[in-house]
Specification:
It is built from eleven helices and three strands, in the order H-E-H-H-H-H-H-H-H-H-H-E-E-H. By secondary structure, the protein is mostly helical. It has one domain.
């Protein structure tokens, strides 16, 4: 059953369509104004059940998050990326950092940062090797990745293919807990980048993406709950639940139910809530890339 649930997450992540945004620009909203961001995901994903509030929502794929950020803002913020040499020692932190690297790799790739893309790809493969989740053909992909780094489509293919292989190898080895942690790392890094970029430039088009993460946060906590008996995971669930408490004040409005489905109409989120979400996800993310001894 747990494997089937995980396959459902991967399926939706693979089929998820790109979010629709326009170029970034400064918001005219005042600091204390409630921001209402209109629907994008509902229009682009009407054929899935991921818009039904009572259902577990799919998690966005790393490349999807990166593409959404790029469409909202063309500025690349290298200083926000996770350090390639960090303090991860336990398998728990290594695994969740693999998910973080997936998003940083995708983010670097969509901004045509070739060397950064190579660096994150190599680091991710090395980390996967340490965790013994590499397939026999994976080391050769580093050379192929470097040879094709000037072709964005090829880089995207190698990125997605490699991380799909990581997940497949974990599932075949019945290591679903680690597969959940990779997804969690990707969620955390995606929200970290989105909130911090929005705070830097006040990109109004990123506000909707931040609001939508309320749904994805529910999914993250749900999949982690399968392993809540593990202390490190239990502690992470507590931190994410604190984040969920903040998100509970974010109002997502839906249309009337049609054929047992509801579509998102708008998200209402205040500037103060945006700051609280940014501060909390930054705290959670930093505790992962800089774990205490």
């Amino acid at each position: 059953m747990r494997v089937m649930v995980f396959y459902r997450f991967i399926l939706f992540a693979s089929l998820a369509t790109s979010l629709t945004f326009v170029s970034c620009g400064n918001s005219s909203e005042s600091e204390n104004t409630t921001v209402i961001a209109k629907d994008s995901l509902a229009k682009s994903d009407e054929n899935t059940d991921s818009l039904v509030p009572s259902q577990v929502h799919s998690l966005p794929a790393p490349m999807q998050v990166a593409s959404a950020i790029k469409k909202a803002c063309p500025t690349y913020f290298e200083d926000l990326l996770s350090p390639l040499k960090n303090e991860t020692t336990s398998d728990f932190h290594k695994t969740i950092n693999l998910g973080i690297y997936a998003v940083d790799l995708g983010y670097s790739n969509v901004y045509d940062q070739k060397q950064a893309s190579i660096n994150y790809f190599i680091t991710a493969v090395k980390l996967a090797d340490e965790l013994k989740i590499l397939g026999p053909a994976d080391p050769a992909k580093i050379k192929a990745f470097k040879d094709n780094v000037n072709n964005k489509d090829s880089v995207t293919f190698y990125t997605l293919n490699s991380f799909n292989n990581f997940h497949e190898n974990l599932l075949l080895s019945e290591r679903t807990e680690e597969a959940y942690l990779i997804l969690t790392g990707s969620f955390i890094e995606g929200l970290y980048l989105t909130t911090n970029i929005q705070a830097k430039n006040k990109e109004q088009k990123l506000v909707h993406l931040i609001g939508e993460q309320k749904l994805f946060l529910e999914s993250t906590i749900a999949i982690l709950s399968n392993s809540k008996d593990k202390k490190e995971i239990s502690d992470l669930i507590v931190k994410l639940t604190d984040l969920q408490t903040i998100y509970n004040k974010v109002d997502i409005k839906y249309s009337e139910e049609i054929q047992n489905k509801k579509t998102m109409q708008e998200i209402v989120i205040t500037d103060n809530q945006l700051k609280q979400i940014k501060d909390k996800i930054t705290e959670i993310r930093n505790s992962i890339i800089h774990p205490k001894a």
